[in-house]
UniProtKB/TrEMBL annotation:
<dbReference type="GO" id="GO:0016787">
    <property type="term" value="F:hydrolase activity"/>
</dbReference>
<dbReference type="Pfam" id="PF01979">
    <property type="entry name" value="Amidohydro_1"/>
</dbReference>
<feature type="domain" description="Amidohydrolase-related">
    <location>
        <begin position="39"/>
        <end position="295"/>
    </location>
</feature>
<keyword id="KW-0378">Hydrolase</keyword>
<protein>
    <submittedName>
        <fullName>Amidohydrolase family protein</fullName>
    </submittedName>
</protein>
<dbReference type="InterPro" id="IPR051781">
    <property type="entry name" value="Metallo-dep_Hydrolase"/>
</dbReference>
<dbReference type="InterPro" id="IPR032466">
    <property type="entry name" value="Metal_Hydrolase"/>
</dbReference>
<dbReference type="InterPro" id="IPR006680">
    <property type="entry name" value="Amidohydro-rel"/>
</dbReference>
Length: 352
């Protein structure tokens, strides 16, 4: 064998960064002629509130697409239809128990909260109603979001802030959403609420559980069921170090159990650095995600199955220098590097 046989393929994947990374050079007619770096798929912030925070600064700093998880359904449908970046998927309104979070919160936009009474009857009654295609208030609320173009149904289970759905009502909401072809994404807050959502088969937790340290068997069950967790760790790093440690510990064990982690910041929740947030990235690395796993969390197509919706002629470009292989598990090194991500036209990037 010659030495050349041992050298890495210069246009192939960059192994330590995962199968999505390519070494590239910017073309000579662009803004930064000849600059070298890493090309990655378009990045998605899987938890934002576009009625509360303008997305333009995030787009300027590397975010191509966002998932809005709580808004007035008509208003978010209009925002999502606008031309240009970011591409938007959305939930529409928060579905919650009557008087439940976030009803009455000053930040909650008008029309963004849909309160529901408990369903009567047990799970068999609910199944029977579904079997006969009988539609109640739960089905109507889900259908309303779907008609406004929602890709996901958002449920708030915040026991700290007010009443929450009982199991029968949560089951009915999840059944109605799944019948409409929509996943259910749950805000779980307060003791037992993450377990409540996991037991009922919620598809996604919109915040990595942060109230309590979850039991290993609960985490194993969530991971085995294919549940995904949106990280939102930077808000805790900002607000409360011990809450951040609880959330990071839960994510560490969820990731180790094979759980699917989605990058998300809850942009619109107070002051956060827009774009690829270095605190979010650093916390994910501290939770045991290697750089390749952080990139996968940023590029995951959820709530769609394939990444095409976030990809319209733009790619993520992260200028050199990339961290050395040994630094790909260093939270600050990975965070500093990914925070320099920018969106560039794909045609301006040449393999090298
Ligand atoms: Zn949120």
């Amino acid at each position: 064998m010659t030495d050349a046989a041992h050298s890495p393929d210069p246009v192939g994947p960059i192994e330590p960064l995962g199968p999505l990374a390519r070494r590239v050079r910017r073309s000579l007619n662009g803004d930064h002629p000849g600059e070298t770096g890493t090309m990655l798929p378009p990045f998605i912030d899987h938890h934002v509130h576009l009625q509360l925070a303008d997305a333009a600064p995030a787009v300027a700093r590397g975010i191509a697409a966002v998932v809005d998880l709580g808004a007035d359904p008509g208003a978010i449908a209009t925002i999502a239809r606008a031309d240009g970046l970011p591409h938007v998927r959305y939930a529409g309104a928060f579905l919650t128990a009557r008087g439940g979070y976030p009803s009455g919160r000053p930040w909650a936009p008008g029309g963004s909260v849909r309160e529901l009474d408990p369903v009567s009857g047990d799970a068999d009654d609910v199944r029977e109603r579904r079997h006969h295609a009988l539609s109640g208030p739960v089905e109507a609320a889900v259908d309303e979001q779907r008609r406004f173009g929602a890709s996901v149904v958002k449920v708030a289970l915040n026991a700290v802030a007010g009443p929450v759905f009982d199991r029968a009502t949560l089951d009915a909401v999840i059944a109605a959403a799944h019948a409409a072809g929509l996943p259910v994404a749950v805000h779980a807050e307060g003791t037992g609420m993450a377990e409540h959502a996991i037991d009922a088969g919620a598809d996604v937790l919109v915040h990595a559980p942060f109230t309590d340290r979850l039991d290993d068997d609960v985490i194993a069950r969530a991971a085995a069921a294919g549940q995904a967790w949106v990280s939102t760790l930077a808000i805790h790093v900002r607000d409360d170090a011990s809450v951040a440690e609880t959330a990071i510990d839960n994510v560490r064990r969820f990731h180790a159990a094979g759980g699917r982690v989605l990058y998300g910041t809850d942009a619109g929740n107070g002051e956060l650095d827009p774009g690829v947030n270095p605190d979010e990235v650093a916390a994910l690395v501290r939770a045991g995600l290697a750089a390749s796993a952080v990139i996968a969390a940023l590029a995951d197509p959820w709530p769609e199955r394939s990444p095409g919706w976030a990809d319209a002629g733009v790619a993520t470009f992260v200028p050199d220098p990339a961290p050395a292989d040994d630094d790909l598990v260093d939270p600050d090194a990975v965070a500093r590097w990914l925070a320099t991500a920018r969106l560039v036209p794909t045609e301006e990037l040449e393999p090298r």
